Amino acid sequence: MGRKYATIDGNEAVARVAYKLNEVIAIYPITPASPMGEWADTWASEGVPNLWGTVPSVIEMQSEGGAAGTVHGALQTGALTTTFTASQGLLLMIPNYYKIAGELTPTVIHIAARSLAAQALSIFGDHSDVMAARATGFALFASASVQEAQDFAAIATAASLKSRIPFLHFFDGFRTSHEIAKVELLEDDQLRQLIDYEDIIAHRQRALTPDRPVIRGTAQNPDVYFQARETVNPFYQKCPGIVQDMMDRFALITGRQYYLYEYHGHPEAERIIVLMGSGCEVVHETVDYLNRQGEKVGVLKVRLYRPFDAQRFLAAIPKTVKSIAVLDRTKEPGSAGEPLYLDVVAAYMEHHQGEMPVIVGGRYGLSSKDFTPAMVKGVFDNLKLGKQAKNHFTIGIYDDLSHTSLDYDPNFSTEPDNVIRAIFYGLGSDGTVGANKNSIKIIGEETDNYAQGYFVYDSKKSGSVTVSHLRFGPSPIRSSYLISKANFVACHQWEFLEKYPVLSAALPGATFLLNSPYPPDLVWDELPVEVQQTILEKQLKFYVINAYQVAREAGMGGRINTVMQVCFFALSGVLPKEEAIAQIKKYIEKTYGKKGKEVVEMNLKAVDSTLEHLYPVNVPNQITSTKRMRPPVDESAPPFVKEVLAKMIAREGDSIPVSALPCDGTYPTGTAKWEKRNIAQEIPVWDPDICVQCGKCVLVCPHGVIRSKVYEEKELVNAPPTFKSAPAREHDWKGLKYTIQVAPEDCTGCALCVEVCPAKNKSQPRFKAINMQPQLPLREQERVNWDFFCRLPWPERTRLDLRKISHQQMQEPLFEFSGACAGCGETPYLKLITQLFGDRMIVANATGCSSIYGGNLPTTPWSHNAAGRGPAWSNSLFEDNAEFGLGFRLAIDKQTEFAVELLQSLAGHIGDNLVTAILNNPQKDEAEIYQQREYVAQLKQKLQQIQNANGEISEKVKILLSLADYLVRKSVWIVGGDGWAYDIGYGGLDHVLASGKNVNLLVLDTEVYSNTGGQASKATPLGAVAKFAAGGKPAPKKDLGLMAMTYGNVYVASVAMGAKPEHTIRAFLEAEAYEGPSLIIAYCHCIAHGIDMSKGMTHQKMAVESGRWLLYRYNPALAAEGKNPLQIDMHSPHLPLEQSMYSETRFRMLSHSKPEEAKRLLKEAQQYIQRRWQLYQYLASRQPQ
Amino acid sequence: MDLSTTYMGLKLKSPLVVGACAPLTEDIDNIKRMEDAGAAAVVLHSFFEEQLQKERLELHHHLTHGTESFPEALTYFPEYSIFHIGEEEYLNHIRKAKETTDIPIIASLNGYDLGGWLEYAKAIEQAGADALELNIYFVPTDMNQTGAQVEQTYIDIVKAVREEIKIPLAVKVSPFFSNMANMAKRLTDAGANALVLFNRFYQPDIDLDNLEVVPHLLLSTPQAMRLPLRWIAILYGRLQVDFAATGGIHHGHDVIKMVMVGANVAMIVSTLLRHGIEYLKHIELQMLQWMEENEYESIAQMRGSMSQLNCPDESAFERAQYLKAIQTYHPVWDKRV
Which residues contact A716 (CB under 8 A, 6 or more apart)? Predict the structure, then answer.
């Protein structure tokens, strides 16, 4: 049988095997494991059978805890069952792991190992999660590469069925789960040879069934629990032998031999490194290099970590070894050492004969910190010190605080000469990564070369930078680290040249390909000095193409992927040019054929016209430019921003020392404004003559970049020459000036403001009062105007009429310049709350999009006003957000209550008038809040005086001083997406609603798990396609609002800013004013809906007009007045549902994949919406008793 | 009473044909209802290739937009291995319509130039359509293009489609030619088996409140039938081609008028959209009543009787009659003004 190769990533490689070998698959999204569930769901929806010919049952659960319970149940009932997870998801599964293992139930759960949230969340890879499961009784089985991940998924399944021990099969998140590599695929026949069907029958025989009734899951007492716990020992003793047997069987079937503890290196090595995961490959490569230099080193790759077979482990290590470094990709603060280190020490203590080697432990690679041969060399060098070797070290960081870090030479490299190494800088939106994935497939599948691709993304959802690292060579590639010595560098975006050191990794003589708006004869003078200097110093071969022009002419808009791919093949010489072009065309057909011939044709057109636009640049011998790279932040930024955050912005965060970072994860707010991203091609420009000053553009701006102010004319004295203003139109503002100003460098160019602008130019209605114009020519001028605008005073908050959008939007936003998707549907709501309540609000934010654009370093959009007040924000977890926010409320209430008690007890000293004023102020509006702050300021002054004068009561005074600010009303906001509110956090949300406490819950309802790539939640509407609902969501959206109304004492509002903005503002004001729990469910259009994001507000409107989304308010305060608490705030649905639904790809694509099912679901959706409307009509029209 | 007629060689039980009528014919159940209500044949809604192109490009755009940017969400939709956005859906529709009904099913292709869509004519034939109606919908706006060039485009398209298929071919055109009679002849020579007169071009409206140009599809009015009536009357008997009248046919009497000027069939669209599919029965009844009252035995008997060739005054369809019409017109003033 011929070997079958494919270039796929680790997740797909594992999912293929897991899907083939299971019958029930319970899934839940979590990065970086989500794609495994997505593959399973898609294959099931397309009817792909497993190894035994049946289509696995794939079900999405409400949380990983739910998935684990389902897995446990399905296993107990005899099905071959699996799930996929990582990180916090794994933690939620742990209770069931104990049960599944305690009952000796075979299963393999596949883990894309990821960091745990500690001082901060991280989506990237390390072993913190799996290490938390090492006491559960699951076997822990580590694979180190994409090939191994596939192979071990199969070996683990065979071994688990045979041994009855359940397995966690783990591989490094991102580094392996997302690395694309050429692998030899496992065929069905090979899997059949590997798995003994008798083991499956035995598993089924143990199933719970009324035909052979037994009970399991009993409760045991002190008399027997202990003994019963020891009954499993023989199974654990046999397990390693079984795994090795399966590895041997696997070798016979495939030719690929693995060992539980696999030594590689010098047969008489003196120094070795012991580790698990993808780092093994790096050490393997380095060991080979160092041994060629005459050293005696080796690597011991641990595959089976639990059950740990100490004797087999020791047997694998050469007797000559004198010193051992055990590397753990995890951290256990306060422990005697990290877990693998402790196991190795114990193994030596218990079983080693003869002189003990030196054993030291160290941490590396947390959160996908790159682990390089240079670091490996540093570790080996440490071992040379023998007994003086540093123990409990770190490698790869500079720890100037506890001095744990080892020094190493970052220039050390083991990269072989016969490997082509290419780095590509691109934007997410330009298609760079997709093109590179295609290139890897071409080279991996159409040539004898091995290929590897790894992709680094930034944490922004708009204008995000991607860096692709590609290697091609004649031998298997073990270099699971980023390329630092490239012989090809491509920069797909001109503006990166002034922001990032794109040529830092270029080797002397390397090829540099630049997508340039300037022709070859003019480009040199336009380069920044630093780039010219590097090109000259490294004598780079320099080529340019105007890829945007070629792409545009081919009809591809801003996607330059194909153009740049052709250039890469033409210049890199990986393949002969003609063959490369033919292969690119073949893959275009393969990739895009299913989407229609037009897509194929435009790509082919781009291929054909590329080479004639690719030019070499005659590089002069001297630097001619006067332009310099821009500093990452302005000189005027605060020290922390300049010294720490700026390095992250410049992609140099790896160089930040330990001491520079906060020890407890606390960061300043108001930092996004320093990160000038300049990502908009076009920005809105205000036409004061047309503007009606309604404020809607300011309201909907997702990024807080378009703002309005009214002010005295005298303020304009020093205005920049192009600064625009108009007489204020509102009667209240007679005689004042009005300006709408855009922050040109922060705008994402989403154009939502243009969409909602109601004012049209009467002579040329194509123009509105806001129009998009190219950013570059306006950048400097508008930057100056923006700075001037920021210095204008805000109108007094107490004098604004918040019922009017134009007035309300004169409140300063304290949420600005987020990295959310351009045109995001969520952020306008967040910005609105900060305008209304920002200077006294505290936010509990569920994990999801809003926690990422809200709290992902380097900067945060949460900001503060000139007085230093603003939202305090934190993210606990995904599942506990409502409870987390309730904790805020309880703490605030308790401290307020305590402050009141102290205030009353000190009334005689403070003075009754002030105390009464403080206690009697209702604090219901801005004026009263302002007044209260004044009172509290007086109180603090008074307390200070008392403390100075009277020693006896100083304790109480001191406490009251620390609590006095709690006498000003605080607004608690519990914010999250529908994945949190409808699914994983619903239990907590429900409990918090039932608590009656004064909290405000805002559900940013995008109707999918947006942050993890659009998986279905219970908020997903009937008929919508989402990941995990690839066949169209068969059930209607859960009516969360209706459920909350049943409590009777919960304020509930359903809003859609794009449909009726005044209603949104009113609901927010009412919810905050309500002295009990409030739930606002806000419709948010989303990139995961497959819409033109510049029309997001129109989609919101259509959702309401078709009845897909209802606008209502349920105010228990009305019930107290004898009125019906429910008010429907919209007209009867009048837009055909089909029109609303099919304007979005998420609905329409079902009609292209399953046309009949789409029709059926559309009909059902129509009926559901009608029934729901009738129910609400009935509820709203009831006469109160 | 014999209502039967023939159209491009197809034997029809009556001249009542449902014209290309989106969205009604998009539902197979509706086509069955049309048959039950007395439709002698049904022209399916048009297959627009450019609409498919747009749909494919949009789908591609939305499935790729925002992908490969953010590490937690490298895509936003499931990765289907197949999409059905092509002619397949339309061809399946033809097959299902044929399976569900016993009446001829006429497919409709809408195009404006010699594009790749011509290949679909063959596929439509293979899917079992009894005939093809080619709807040439071309609104020239290029000031450098001459009338002759525009006309030649029409002829080239008809010839190209004719070469692709063996089933009968009807051509639906607008009346906006310098000499309609000449065009009718050239279209016939190019291979058309029938002329469907006339296409109504979409004419947008202005929304004064929002200063927007809005698509506003107007259903036909009874007055619209005068134009096809006149041209069929003029052309009948002079060309070896069948005629389908379309536009403004809302009453049984309208059908009879059209047959009398020479139409083989009358296409009903707007009135079904307005009154429902079952209204066809009503139209048939009106025809039958008139024929009975006026002692006509068959459609064949009346066909072409009022055409220019056979009518009592052959100048009635020409310029002289226009003069008479305006000279004898008596305005009826609104007394309230």
Answer: A723, A725, A737
Return the residue matching tokens 């005939």: B131
CA A565 to CA A580: how far, in whole Å?
Answer: 10
Q: Which residues of B touch A1146 (CB under 8 A)?
A: 77
Q: What SS3 state is found at A362?
A: strand
CB atoms within 10 A of CB A24: 21
**Following DSSP, what letter does each residue of B247-259 receive, concatenated?**
SS--SHHHHHHHH
Contact B78 A42 (CB under 8 A): yes
Q: Please tell me the pTM assigned to this model.
A: 0.94
Among B62, B65, B72, the residue with its CB nearest the CB of A1012 is: B72
The token duo for A1094 is: 């510049």
**Cβ contact A1101:A1134 at 8 Å:** no
Contact between A596 and B86 using a beta-carbon 8 Å cutoff: yes
Residue B69 contacts residue A455 (beta carbons within 8 Å): no
Pick the range with the lowest mean pLDDT from A18-27, A143-152, A597-606, A1009-1018: A597-606
Catalytic residues of A: 31, 64, 114, 1011
ipTM of the complex: 0.94
Look at residues A147, A174, A179, A176 and name the one whose alpha carbon lies nearest to residue A454: A179
Q: Which residues of A touch B82 (CB under 8 A)?
A: 594, 1153
According to the model, what pLDDT value does residue B320 have? 60
Residues from chain A that touch B63, judged by Cβ atoms under 8 A, are: 595, 1090, 1145, 1149
User: Which residues are A26's β-sheet partners?
Assistant: A59, A83
Asked if residue A876 lies in contact with residue A865, where contact means CB atoms within 8 angstroms, the answer is no
Least confident of A12-26, A649-663, A1136-1150, B11-25: B11-25
CB B66 within 8 A of CB A559: no
Break chain B into its structural domains and give their ranges.
5-308
Strands A1015-1016 and A1000-1005 turn out to be unpaired
Residue A60: which of A1019, A1103, A1185 has the closest Cα?
A1019
The SS3 assignment for A539 reads coil
Nearest CA in chain B to A44: B80
Domains of chain A, CATH where assigned? 5-185+204-253 (3.40.50.970), 259-395 (3.40.50.920), 420-616 (3.40.920.10), 895-967 (no CATH), 1007-1181 (3.40.50.970)
φ, ψ dihedrals at A255, nearest 5°: 85, 0
**Mean of pLDDT over chain B:** 90
Within 10 angstroms of residue A197's Cβ, the number of other Cβ atoms is 10
Cβ(A41)–Cβ(A27) below 8 Å: yes
The residue to which tokens 């898609």 are assigned? A42
Length of chain A: 1185
Computed over every residue of chain A, the mean pLDDT equals 96
In B, minimum Cα distance to A596 occurs at B56
- Quote the tokens at residue B250: 């809302």
**Distance (Å, rounded) from C-alpha A104 to C-alpha A161?**
10
Longest dimension (CA), chain B: 82
A457 contacts B77? CB cut-off 8 A: no
- Highest CATH level, class, for B5-308: alpha beta
Strand intervals (E) in A753-840: 770-774
Could you tell me if A7 and A162 are in contact, meaning their C-beta atoms sit under 8 angstroms apart?
no
Who wins on pLDDT, B316 or A269? A269
As a whole number of Å, the CA-based R_g of chain B is: 22
> Which DSSP letter does residue A270 get?
S
Residue in chain B closest to A33 (alpha carbons) equals B72
Give the mean model confidence (pLDDT) for residues A470-489.
96
> Is pLDDT of A788 > 70?
yes
- Residue located via tokens 């006498």: A967
Nearest to B147 by CA among B111, B178, B190, B181: B178
Residue type, A392: H
pLDDT digits (tens, 9 = 90+) for B210-235: 888 887 777 888 888 999 999 999 99
